[in-house]
Each structure stands twice: as C-alpha cells, then as structure tokens.
Amino acid sequence: AAAAQSSTLPFTPITPVPASVDAVTVPQGYQWAPLIRWGDPLFSKKDVFSPEAQTAELQARQFGYNNDYLDIIEVPWLGLLGVLVANHEYTNEGIMFPPAADEAQADEQRRIAMAAHGMSVVQLYRTGRSKAWKYKVGAKLNRRITVATEFEFTGPAAGSPLLRTKDDRSGTRVLGTLGNCAGGTTPWGTVLSGEENFNGYFRTAGTSDAEKRYGLGNAPTARGWEKIEPRFDATNPGYENEPNRFGWVVEVDPLAPNEPPVKHTMLGRLKHEGANVIIGKTGHVAAYTGDDERFDYLYKFVSKEKYDPRPRLNARWHNKRLLREGSLYVARFTGDSPSGEITGTGNLPADGAFDGSGEWIPLVVDGESRVPGFAVDEVLVHTRLAADAVGATKMDRCEDVQPNPKTGRIYVACTNNSDRGKPGKEGATEANPRNANRDGHVLEIVEAGDDATATRFAWNILLLCGDPKTNPSAYFAGFPAEKVSPISCPDNLAFDSEGTLWISTDGAPGTIGYGDGLFKVPLEGPERGRVQQFLSVPREAETCGPVIKDEDGMVFVAVQHPGEDGAWGDQHSYFPDYVAPNQLTGDGKWGGPRPSVVQVWRS
Ligand code: FEO
Ligand code: CA
Ligand code: CA
Ligand code: CA
C-alpha cells in the first residue's frame, strides 16, 4: 500500500513552484545536473558551441534543440555502458541566435534550424550502478539524424503514388524527420518517435479535403524552409506529395549507427505524439498511438507476426520487421451513464463512475482496407479521413499512450481541449467529460481478456487534472483532493520498476500558474490517484521524456523550450548554465536558455 515508502526513490513532494521561477526544483535529498545540452559536441571536442558563430555544419555534429522524447538504454552486456536517445521537436531561432543581418544569414539560420531538428543517439558511461552518467564525445554509437538524413518507408503504403515526388519516383525514400514529439522504446530495443506538427513546415495548395483535415494551407511558412529547399513548397510541380512523406512513426536502432532509420506506413499518418509497444498474450505486439489535435483520435496497431523473445541476432532482425505488417484500429469509447457530462453528486457522472466499454474499429486488417471507398494506401496516408468515416471517438488531444509493463493496462494522457462544448463543437461525453477542458485528464484502458490484441476494452478515468483549490471538478481516482499535488496538462507518461505511473506536464503555467513538472501517481491500493510532485522545470519550459530508473535512485527529464517567450537580448531563462547574459565561458557554459537532458539523483 505505501508505494512511496517501499520505492527506492523515496521523496517528499515539492511545493508547487510559481511559473516565473527560472530553476529546476527537486525534492530534498536530491541533486540535479545537465547530462547533455543543446550545442554539446557529439563527434569532436573541436565542434565548440557558440550561438554567435553557429553554422549548419557544426549543428549537425552537435546535440539538437528542444529535446522531447528521451530514453536511457542500458547496454546489458557491458553494464557500465548506456545509450541516450532523444529527439528534437522544433527550433526557436529568435532566442538561439542574434537576428540575421541579411537574407544570406537568414538562410544559414534556416539550415542551422534544419540541422537542430531530428534525433540524437549518444553513448554514455558511468563508474558504478548508482553513479551519474556522462556522455562520451566521439563514441562509436553517437549519431545525429536531421532533416537531411535518408529514411526508408516500410509497410503497405511504401511505394504508393501518394508518396512519390520528383526526387523519389519510387515513393520509398525520404529525406529527414521533423516535429518529433514523444516516442517509445520497443521490447526489442529500438526507439520509435512520432512526427507531430509537420503541417507547419509546408506550403501546399490547401484545396483537397486531406490537406484541410491536416491543417495544410497555401501561405508562406513561418520557418521559410521553402525558400532554400523547393520540396517544402508543395505547390512546386513535382512536390505535391512531399507533405505526405511526414506525419509517420519512425524507428531507429540505436545500436546500429549505419542502418537507415525507417518510417512505418502501417501505423498511419497523423499528428503522432509517439508510439508505445507491448507484447500481447498471443505473442503478437500492439502499438498504441495518439493524434494530438483537439477532437482527434486514438489508434492501435497489431502485428501480423509474433515477437521472437530469443536473445539472438536473427530474432532482433525479425522483431525489427514487426511494425511493417498487420492491422490498424481506431478507438470508439462508449460511456455507461445516462448522461455523458458530469451531472451527479461529487462531480461524478450520473451512475457514480467515469467508466464504460469500448471497441477498436478496424481500418486495415492484415493489409486490407476495411474502410469503404478507401484503398489501403489511402487509409494509411489519409488516416484522419478514414477514421472520420468509421465514427471514431473525438478525444481531448491524446498525447502519450502507454501500456503499463507490469499490468498491461493502457494509460492515455489527454492534455486538454479548451474547445470542447463551444458552439458548433462536440460537447462533453463520459470519456471526455468536461467542457472547456483546460486541465486535461488521464484514461485507463483494460483490454478484453487482458490481451493487447483484443478488439474490445473497458475504460475508466484515472485523473481529471487541475488544482482542486480552483477547479472543483478535479478528480484523483477517489483519492482525497486536498492531499494531492495540483497537476495540469498531462503530456508524457512513464512507469517505474514497480509499475507506478509518472506523468510530466506541458501547459501548467497558463492554467494553474505553476511551473510544469514531473509527478508520481500510484495505481494500486489505497494510494491510487495520489498525485505527488517530484520536480519542477525552469521558466517557460515543458517537462518531457521522463525516464525513471528507481532501482538506481535516478530520474531523467528532457527540459524543452526554456525561456521560449524571450528574445535575443531579453532572454527569459539562463538554464542550465546560469552564467551572465550571453557570456560564453571557457568550460563550455553559455548565458542563455539551452534545452537539455537533466539527470536527478539522490545526494
Ligand atoms: Fe508536441 Fe503533443 O506535444
Ligand atoms: Ca459510468
Ligand atoms: Ca508532447
Ligand atoms: Ca504538448
């Protein structure tokens, strides 16, 4: 019952930190340090970081900007060796460099931005199990993936006419990945990453139903990449399909630095937050993925082939092909209360519980379309349109969707939806039970027969987030609201070795007025629903990619977009180096905000 006491990461919850504080706050008895920062060199110590002397060539050899997904993967046969995998969602040129003096410099800043997107693989070492990790410059596994890296398409839509451009008449290869948000590490040790807000990078005709549904339009982009690479302007003849080549789940093997990364068409094209895989009872694997847009959907992929658990090279090769073939489903949630909205006493629905049943509606089964009027490549490239056609449930922005490795139950972070219930928009339903849902909620799904490959499920609401002092509808699985840490806008999810849920947030400063943070939530026994805040991130930052290594007494987070509302000359954050404004010190510190991976450990 006393999860907080039995854990190897005991802590007293921190007091919520006002959003204006430019500091990392950790519990008493813990300390933190950056493990790697934007601009840190991966291949040679000569690639020194200096915002005023930055080039695209240097950036492609340094850790990228705005780290979001994070994992620290121990390489088991060596024990003291690890590999860090992070992605880099987007850039903020206004705080990264001085304003460009002319158009040539503006173009170079665009190329730097392209090189600061993508992913990083970084080899780590430590001197003992509970010792802090360090990263190694020039190590064998170090790798940067950017907007210029070649990817291969896999699955039924690879080679489709919908993916062909004048640069790739085969529709099987694409340069780059962008808008990478969350992700997941697979049971076979590769990393998945979700391409999310790709629409903002392209100018398109904006006339087709699909373009409109994905938010693609005919206007110059804010980033202006179409000025230096014609493929980002899909109105250029031959590039009409370039936007179709983004919005996928990508897979990278961090132990195979020379293997091309892939984009899996079988998981559909949407604004993927990320994807997380679990092995079902039948041996087939399921991957859960959310579409992070107001009123968009929750999806599940089920593999055709079974997972091979043998610790052999050919098993690894087999498992790396599991996401290429199978079935794709979209979720429909049904409430069992007479009215969806909260109407009963105690902020509960009329039947006293936020719960109900659900089904996974097939879009593609064993490589064949199940959506009338859609060929299989149309389902996979225009997945939102296919899901619209089958009556899926409109959700409050699914961010991370993660199976609990201990119990197999699935957790869905719905970050918020301020538009729910507005005129002309769908109102509250039992699975999304609040109109103007500014604080978000977390759902718990139990697959039928506890099998990840099932097509029916039961669900309930674990948390309706908020500060109970100011939002009376906040709900914590029945745990007394006055005893929890206030929490808002759940985004990324993780589990510790005991199966306890950890949640990081994005958006709390604008809703409850506290800095974003990381929270622990027991799922079993009398402590179920007891939200306890572990850390808080600096001014204007979001907490991403939590990694909980409780057996080592360690926690890692990716601190994304610190000081994002500042400007060159008016920086809002000095995290993590905290030296004088714009000062560049001999030991590699800089006086301005640097998105970084932070390591927290017991003092
Ligand atoms: Fe990039 Fe859905 O947050
Ligand atoms: Ca109910
Ligand atoms: Ca996110
Ligand atoms: Ca978010």
TrEMBL record:
<dbReference type="InterPro" id="IPR008557">
    <property type="entry name" value="PhoX"/>
</dbReference>
<dbReference type="Pfam" id="PF05787">
    <property type="entry name" value="PhoX"/>
</dbReference>
<feature type="region of interest" description="Disordered">
    <location>
        <begin position="416"/>
        <end position="436"/>
    </location>
</feature>
<feature type="compositionally biased region" description="Basic and acidic residues">
    <location>
        <begin position="419"/>
        <end position="428"/>
    </location>
</feature>
<protein>
    <recommendedName>
        <fullName>Phosphatase</fullName>
    </recommendedName>
</protein>
<dbReference type="InterPro" id="IPR006311">
    <property type="entry name" value="TAT_signal"/>
</dbReference>
